[in-house]
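Bit of a strange request maybe. I'm writing a small parser for structure token strings and I need a real example to test against, not something I typed by hand. Could someone generate the tokens for this chain?
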Amino acid sequence: METINVYYTKLNNKIISERIFNTYLLSLPYLLQKKIRRLKREKSQIHSLIGYKLVQYALSENGFSISYLLNIEFEKEGKPFIPDTFNFNISHSENIVVCSISSKKIGVDIEKIRKINVENMTPFLTTQEYNKLLNSRNTDIEFANIWTKKEAFVKAIGKGMSINFANINISNNKISYLNNNWFLQKLEIDNSYVSFVSTSIEKPIVNLKCVDF
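Reply from user aminoacidic:
Good idea to test on real output. This should exercise your parser:
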């Protein structure tokens, strides 16, 4: 049975001090430093920085030198990858940053559960999902589940938001796309968040690890 490793960090005020930010930033390849600096919001810079620190951690824990990060490349749609290592994906929401790795293509998403207006979300839902939300006891959690599943899937295939979410049909935590099946696994990280990982691996072993920098 194949394994997926998932690393996450819960941020706090100490980790976002300017001194620590600059120290961490200088530990990354110059290409990534520039990409992070170009982000307009400070919180986005911090999330991106911590995401790549988790990639460094994953490299080291899985027997690779962190210098492999110097070889990072980006697919046409912008998804990063490091040749001759593993597949990885990063997600963040509010105070949590997640990095998942696998031998197969992988996508991960995490979302803080927020109050939503169901009618505003119809462009992203199938008819069945819309009806399910209307009848749900907690529409906020139910929508977060639907959204994170779809987001993890499109990140796994490297398409991002270029795919119409309303055309993505989820059945028993499985999505069929171009004659391939993609499976979804829930990650139990925090009760205030919903997180899913998506790969072509059915029922993988998921190793979940909190990383404190």
